[in-house]
Design goal:
Layout: E1 7-8, H1 13-16, E2 23-33, H2 37-49, E3 53-57, H3 60-67, E4 70-78, H4 86-96, E5 101-106, H5 111-119, E6 124-127, H6 132-139
Parallel strand pairs: 2-3, 2-4, 4-5, 5-6
Antiparallel strand pairs: 1-2
């Protein structure tokens, strides 16, 4: 079976005797992780209007699970999430997607929060509400 433009299953998966997750090779995918549904939907609409495919998650755990199935160009991660924190997710995403643009987001926008996000692997920190111009600049890095 030939890989399609949207999914790819590694050739060795049959030889390993186990299922390997299908990867979606959709160009320009952005993971959006926020427990606030309105904020998540607003960010999704914004990145979608710029031609990105939004991949939506309400928690760090869900975001990490979804990231296993996408080749991400970027991730927008709320820092304060129920369960595992957004900063932990940023660190995991940085190790998995070293070239992706990672953006930490929080309503608590101060220099200490920015340092924390950058220390966990974020390229940029944005305060809420997110300014579209700042997000656009971040995604075109």
């Amino acid at each position: 079976m030939e890989p399609s433009a949207e999914t790819f299953s590694p050739a060795g998966s049959m030889l390993l005797g186990r299922d390997v997750p299908q990867l979606r090779l959709q160009a320009r995918a952005v993971l959006v992780v926020d427990d606030d549904g309105d904020a998540r939907d607003g960010l999704a609409q914004l990145v979608s209007s710029w031609g990105y495919t939004p991949v939506l998650a309400a928690s760090a755990e869900e975001g990490e699970r979804l990231a296993q199935h996408w080749l991400l160009d970027a991730a927008l991660v709320d820092i304060f999430l129920p369960g595992r924190s957004g900063e932990q997710l940023l660190a995991r995403l940085r190790s998995t997607f070293p070239a992706a643009v990672l953006v930490g987001i929080s309503a608590l926008a101060d220099p200490a929060m920015e340092r924390l996000c950058r220390g966990m692997g974020a390229d940029l920190f944005l305060g809420k509400p997110v300014k579209p111009e700042a997000l656009a600049r971040a995604l075109t890095r």
